[in-house]
Amino acid sequence: VRFSSLVDRISGPSARAWDVHYRALEAQRLGEQVIVLSVGDPGFDTPAAVRARAVRALDAGDTHYTEILGRAPLREAIARTHNAQSGQSVDSDWVAVLAGAQNALFAAALCLVEAGDEVLVPEPMYLTYPAAIGAPGARLVAVPTPAANGFRLDIAALESAITPRTRAVFYATPNNPTGACCTHQELSSVAAFARRHDLWVVADEVYGRFCFERGHVSIAALPGMAERTVTVSSLSKTHAMTGWRVGWMVAPPPLIEHVRDLGLCMLYGLPGFIQEAACEALVHCDAAVEEMREAYRRRRDWAVTCLDAVDGLRCLVPEAGLFMLVDVRGTGLSGADFSARLYAETGVSVLDATAFGPSAQGHVRVSFAVDDEVLAEGCRRIAAFARRAVQDASPADVRRAERSL
Ligand SMILES: Cc1ncc(COP(=O)(O)O)c(C=O)c1O
Questions:
Q1: How many whole angstroms from 11 Cα to the centroid of ligand 1?
Q2: Ligand 1 within 6 A of CB of 203
């Protein structure tokens, strides 16, 4: 027996980047005092009203097959939420409910690109993009957004990566891991670029409601973009619902019809009681989202202040989301050595940001999705570790680490 070539396209360095995280989770399961700052799983509970709605639906027997693209009230609630957030004006025919933003990204890739196609993705990028884009056989072309420019989208770099095979641009704004948010001006340039080269744009906006500095911008609402944009989002982060697996895409109805066919052979709809709970989240829980956003902003400010004061560490202040990148080159360590030794010596897991793309070399990604006390203890251990590393580092170590970028 043998496997298909797909198995190679969905494995690889990005899939392995989670190793330190899985080790930390296993240690936590065994009762060790580890601190997991390596994943963006909100420390908040799902709002009580959402949990109660799921229980009521379960008790009422809502345990059967449901509509492939999602129930009408949920699709309508998603369309309303999307319109309010983006400034676009779509109805529920533009919505497919899927099992998380991840499932929506995968469905978009399967329906939009294939072998021989190229997809431009600014890096650093979320770790699952290579496998999602590689699965249908397309080639991911990573477009650098250098650290020296604050990891901002670089339209000239996009232009220079275009070939006759380019079919799409995938990106996340706000970005994971950098926390950078595209401005209206940047997205207007991307929109003009996409129209000029007749490209699809897949905009991953899972952190769109957690912007700290200015309003979120959706490319779908810019002129001439509705018919070529797929907006992907979910309840995972906004409503602390990662485990419920509720996400969606908003896209032109012809694509939604193809996603219905894909859903029929892949997912067959989300459970009804989950969809009822999702409706509750979208219709009645804006205040909870706002409270969480404020908490994340407070934690971000606190973590940045704490770590930036440490010799050898430099924080890039994230404009949004649940993560920050910390430049660790001043400690004389690479991102990989820093994260491996930090975990071994202090039990704090962070991710080597190189996994997200070469532009993030020399950085680690720290999540501030956890509770205040956990974050405080994690940052205290990171600071103590960095101070020790700086003391041990020779000037040659620091120069070598700084040259790595
Ligand atoms: C940028 C980005 N896109 C998509 C996802 C997947 O989200 P979901 O849980 O909705 O599948 C994540 C999760 O961390 C993410 O950071």
A1: 18
A2: no
User: CA–CA separation, 309 vs 103, rounded Å?
Assistant: 40
Distance from the CA of 233 to the center of ligand 1, in angstroms?
A: 8
Ligand 1 atom nearest 207 alpha carbon:
1
Two tokens, residue 29: 């399961």
> Hey, whose CA ends up nearest to atom 16 of ligand 1?
176
Supply the pTM of this predicted model.
0.95
Q: Are 247 and 99 in contact (CB under 8 A)?
A: yes
* Cβ of residue 242 lying under 6 Å from some atom of ligand 1: yes
Q: Is 204 in the pocket of ligand 1 (CB under 6 A)?
A: yes
Which among 25, 73, 32 is positioned nearest to 53, based on CA atoms?
Answer: 73
Nearest atom (ligand 1) to Cα of 103: 11
CA distances from 28 to 23, 165, 365 (A): 9, 46, 20
Among residues 348, 302, 354, which one has the least CA distance to residue 328? 354
List per-residue pLDDT tens for the chain, 405 residues long: 999 999 999 987 766 667 889 999 999 999 998 999 998 899 999 999 999 999 999 999 999 999 999 999 999 999 999 999 999 999 999 999 999 999 999 999 999 999 999 999 999 999 999 999 999 999 999 999 999 999 999 999 999 999 999 999 999 999 999 999 999 999 999 999 999 999 999 999 999 999 999 999 999 999 999 999 999 999 999 999 999 999 999 999 999 999 999 999 999 999 999 999 999 999 999 999 999 999 999 999 999 999 999 999 999 999 999 999 999 999 999 999 999 999 999 999 999 999 999 999 999 999 999 999 999 999 999 999 999 999 988 777 777 777 665
Phi, psi dihedrals of residue 291, rounded to the nearest 5°: -65, -40
Q: Are 314 and 362 in contact (CB under 8 A)?
A: no
Strand segments (E) across 317-370: 323-327, 348-349, 351-352, 363-367
Q: Is 100 in the pocket of ligand 1 (CB under 6 A)?
A: yes
CA 400 – CA 356 distance, rounded (Å): 21
The CA 71 to ligand 1 mean position distance, Å, reads 22
